[in-house]
Amino acid sequence: MSRITEEEVKYVAHLARLTFTDEEIKTFTTQLDDIIGFAEQLNELDTEGIEPTTHVLDMYNVMRDDVVEPSLPREEALKNAPVQEDGQVKVPQIMEAN
User: Which residue, 6, 2, 5, 35, is CA-closest to 23?
Assistant: First the structure.
């Protein structure tokens, strides 16, 4: 029994703006069906009394302390910028002015 159809794969590909050949659609349909089958095996496990987790390790805050440190001098930060203007990196305009 197939858990996913070729039409569903085409629909998801369309949503993701991806284009696949008919052969690729067949391949992905088979592969995704296998993945869903493996995931369904988890339903067979007895999880009664097991507390849900979001991470397998007890991790709370893995970020470093926010410490104020001196930054690069402006000249050093801009030395590799191809175009500079008024102490800033100049980039091409991407929006039209009204």
Answer: 6
